[in-house]
Specification:
By secondary structure, the protein is an alpha/beta fold. Helices cover about 30% and strands about 30% of the residues. The chain contains six helices and nine strands. The strands form two sheets. It has a seven-stranded mixed sheet, with helices on both faces. Strands 6-7 form a two-stranded antiparallel sheet. Helix 4 (about 75-85) links the parallel strand 2 (about 65-70) and strand 3.
Length: about 200
């Protein structure tokens, strides 16, 4: 089964509150937005954002230039349905992030729990190359992944765990580290998943 078919199957068979990554309020992500002082008119992309509530909160905070990218059309369709008329305020992209070719550049790149599904060096390097080209010279990026004490699989797929040092080792060619934190995510099933969240700024010549 292809990755796209896998995720279409997940979103066609489960409600968002029935998946482990469900968050009614993405508190950590929103704190990074605040800490990094992302401007209200900044071009923002949420990678793997699908049916998450991150976009809802950004709209409530007054952000005006939001792109949501997800490999699953079903996830995006569900988000559109939930947002109603507000869905027209968002740019929606159905695409594998490693194949994404943006029309312009972004000021802020957000990824909670998509990056760790890339398990090969080729996939990881392609993702980071896309992110580097897609970000403006002063662009910032936040990546949230399972930590080295977090789960080893998710939704029936293998993932790649990261420590602060191992994540920075592969990303430092493209980005300088700003801040890293560990946080526990409580799933709808009352299990605990430890995440590593790191913010970076683009390396400029």
């Amino acid at each position: 089964m292809s990755l796209k078919k896998h995720w279409e199957g997940v979103y066609n068979s489960k409600e968002f509150s029935e998946v482990s990554w469900y968050q009614a309020t993405p508190k950590v992500s929103l704190e990074f937005v605040s800490d990094l002082q992302i401007a209200k008119d900044a071009a923002i992309i949420d990678v793997g954002g699908g049916d998450s509530y991150f976009a809802d909160h950004l709209l409530d905070l007054g952000y005006t230039n939001i792109t949501i990218l997800d490999i699953s059309k079903a996830a995006i369709n569900r988000a559109k349905l939930r947002l109603g008329s507000n869905a027209s305020r968002i740019n929606w992209v159905v695409c594998d992030i490693t194949e994404f070719v943006p029309d312009g550049q972004f000021d802020f790149w957000h990824d909670r729990a998509a990056f760790h599904f890339l398990t090969s060096e080729k996939q990881i390097n392609k993702y980071l190359d896309v992110a580097n080209k897609a970000l403006s010279a002063s662009g910032k990026i936040v990546i949230g992944t399972f930590s080295d004490t977090g789960p080893k699989t998710c939704s029936g797929l293998p993932i790649k765990q990261y420590s602060e040092s191992s994540l920075y080792l592969i990303i430092r060619k493209w980005f300088h580290k700003i801040k890293c934190i560990h946080t526990d995510h409580i799933t709808p099933f009352n299990t605990i998943q430890n995440f590593l969240f790191c913010s970076f700024k683009k390396v400029t010549p």
